[in-house]
Amino acid sequence: KLKSGTVAEKTKYYCGKEIKTRNLYNQTLYVKGMLYSGYYLDKKNKMHYTKKGSLTLKTGVVSAKTKYYSGKANKTRKLKKQTLYVKGKLYTGYFLNGKNTMYSAKKGVITPVSTVLDSGTKYYSYKGKKTRRLSKQTLYVKGKLYTGYYLDGENMMYSVKKGICTIVNTPLAAGTAYYM
Fold this sequence. Notes:
Elements: E1 5-7, E2 12-15, E3 20-23, E4 28-31, E5 34-35, E6 38-41, E7 47-51, E8 54-57, E9 60-62, E10 67-70, E11 75-78, E12 83-86, E13 89-90, E14 93-96, E15 102-106, E16 109-112, E17 115-117, E18 122-125, E19 130-133, E20 138-141, E21 144-145, E22 148-151, E23 157-161, E24 164-167
Parallel strand pairs: 6-10, 14-18
Antiparallel strand pairs: 1-4, 2-3, 4-5, 6-7, 7-8, 9-12, 10-11, 12-13, 14-15, 15-16, 17-20, 18-19, 20-21, 22-23, 23-24
């Protein structure tokens, strides 16, 4: 019967081409006896990206309707929603993607941030590959750093440059546009 699933690192196997026994260099994924390339959700619900059987834990967004091989079900399935994984796990928290868009994630489901995040707020940086903290209070609109004027819920007006808020202490011209 053809093997489907992962085979542990250093497992011995017979190589028909070389007519000898060899060891696998790393954990390898086979589906119906063939090396697998694509997304793989293991039995512990960790998402991997697999190339020629070699497994790498997925960090980043996987699009809705993406096909993946399920280790639990032993068959190919499709993701129902766009989903965020960090080190293979569904992510909850703030996430800054490679294009510097800030998202809020809950169990992998993401939405762009449109709010002020406090200084010290933790987020996972895709570029930095680790959890970081915001150094200053920062305003994001649709996930992007905002530049312009901002009126908060307490009617305080701020001048905002690249997300950093400074209280306005001068008169503004009539018709000045602002975000609230």
